[in-house]
Amino acid sequence: FLATELLVYSEELEVAGRLDCLALVNGKKTLLDWKVANNISKNYYLQLSGYQLCLEAMGWQPEERALVRIPKTNERKVWNADIRKYEMKENNLEVIVPPTDLAFDKEVFKSLRLPYKWFNQFIVK
């Protein structure tokens, strides 16, 4: 472990967060985010890219990123497209490396800041 519960920020993007873990994994600086869930939502890939942008703004460049899914139950429902129904499967710890392009994820994250700021202007007042 290099750091846990690290507060990160980007003044340029006006965003901050607390990432779960920075660690050396197989000799590479890796950004890890724990998720206690039965499934991983694709929007978590964008959350990781936001952390990456913050770390880069702070002068630190992770080489890898991954989500660590910690199961809530012993079994979970998984969709089987072949038979077009859910099946119960064993629910194990899972490490997911986002299959998406990091550069594109970072651009999407940046572009989503504008509508987020627009909506929040009504909450702040």
Describe the structure.
With 125 residues, the chain is α+β, with helices and mostly antiparallel strands. The protein is 30% helix and 40% strand. The protein is built from two helices and seven strands, in the order E-E-E-H-E-E-E-E-H. The protein has a five-stranded mixed β-sheet with strand order 1-2-3-4-7. Helix 1 packs across helix 2. The termini are far apart. The relative contact order is 0.17. The model has no long low-confidence stretch (mean pLDDT 94).
Helix amount, in percent? 25-40%
The end-to-end span amounts to 41 Å
Our estimate of the beta-strand percent is 35-45%
Give the overall shape, derived from the CA principal axes. Answer: globular
Count every beta strand, where a strand is a DSSP E run of 2 or more residues: 7
Q: Order of strands side by side in the largest beta sheet?
A: 1-2-3-4-7
Gyration radius over CA: 17 Å
In the predicted model, the low-confidence regions spanning at least 5 consecutive residues are none
- Along the chain, the helix and strand elements come as EEEHEEEEH
Number of helices: 2
Q: Sheet bearing the most strands, described?
A: 5 strands, mixed
- What is the SS-derived class? alpha+beta
Mean pLDDT: 94
